[in-house]
Amino acid sequence: MARKDRKNAGWSHPQYQYDPAGRITSLAYAWQTYNSGYTGTPILGQEYAYHATKRLRTAASFSNNPDWDGDLDLIRTETYAYDPDLDYLTEVDYNDGLANEVQTWTYDAAGNRATDSVQGSGWSYDNLNRMTASPGYSYLHDILGNRTWRNFGSSGVQRYQWDALNRATSVVGEAYGARYVYRADGMRVEKVEGLTLSWVPPGEEEVSGHYDENLAENLPTSRYYYDGQMRVEDDYTVEGQYEPVVTVMRYGIGARGIDFLDKRVDDGPETKGYPIYDGHGNMIATLGQTQGSPYYSLADLRSYDVWGAVRSGSTTGDPKQRYCANLGHVQDDESGLIYMRARYYEPWTGRFLSEDPKNHGWNWYSYANCNPVTFVDSTGQAAFLASLLVILIEVIIAAAVEIGFQLASGRSLDNLDWASVGVAAGFGLIGGVYGHFVRRAFYMLKTPLHRKAWVEGDFATYFVKMIGIGTSTSLKRNHFAPLWRAMIFGGAGHIAMELYGMYLLAHMEE
């Protein structure tokens, strides 16, 4: 790793530039040096260019390393290609001279990865978008869509366990593993490492063998402390030769997320660091200083692939915040998974281990709408704003249908019954809230087949409700008319779709 020490150097000082659309176009870091006055010396930089369609086209990386002549030199330029209709990322050229410099992907109709130029083919999914196979691996899930096994009964086995709230409580493989504890709001507060999985052959009169979870004598334990949902301290305890050794990492939270790192091992010297991020929020380096030393060092240099895996630099060790580090996301060294609060993300498959708790969109496992260079997931679940947008659309549709019925019955735009339009919009609001909050909660409790039946019935149910809401009011100049029509037609449609769901349950295979 290339390093440069500067005496009397201070903090990393970022500078940002944006285009008229508010998109970041350049990001440059400099450290401050003091010689009878402060002077900024460039360290690292990034420049971004966009298509007319607002997609990110290129990301250029600059560095003052290794010549340190005071100027940022172009190191490489990443280029991206997309599906023209769906905005899925289909190709990246890293231009970094490393293996697999160019990567391409294709997707099925539901947004699941179908091919990968690096990992190859062999990706398969069931009708609920649960991944059943990837190159070299097979997978099993429980009825709520949580992954339970990888390569059950063969090499590379991994077991995943979950609590009643669909939170992962352990991820254990043949050579590594950990179990997790959460607080009431779902934030992880403890991780215990040192777990492994072993196969126990069947004994006498036993039909089959089973897997045992083994605990090491030394169980490294991490405990996490938060301000809200941003981590402010990690305590990592491991058994030493004579007594436990405790590593404490503290974080300063600022406008960029994590703005300061402070590490101390037992009573040893402090190591202070300032994170350096790229425009996506990935921690690409730190500018650090050890207590008692006048020197700052540029260290922990990393680059990432577009899905979040470390491409160059160390894949383990501190800081644990790497991909989307400014959001506080943490990568677990023992599994490689990224903890994104509500769920765990797997960078090499580009998907989550469990369903989206908010059941947003048509694929509840995909990450960042299959476009990880443009989007991020701050909590591991769909944004609340997305649900509000869908509800607003349903309100508009309900009002528009009612207006259409009135115009068809002979009314003019100057003579519309706005009270009836208001009632229709109100029912659109009720239906939207029902469909996107209450009903989604029921999905978590039903079997996959029942859930599938309800999903297929959603569109028809809402359509029938809208017909009831939008029934012409010209026959009865009374704004209660759409009210009772909505109750009759909407209720009938709801019952019909429930019967349809029962029919599907009876005729579909497990």
TrEMBL record:
InterPro entries reported in the protein's UniProt record: Rhs_assc_core, T6SS_VgrG/RHS
Transmembrane intervals: 382-404, 416-437, 483-506
Protein name (record): RHS repeat-associated core domain-containing protein
Keywords, sorted A to Z: Membrane, Transmembrane, Transmembrane helix
Keyword presence, Transmembrane: yes
Organism expressing this protein natively: Candidatus Nitrosymbiomonas proteolyticus
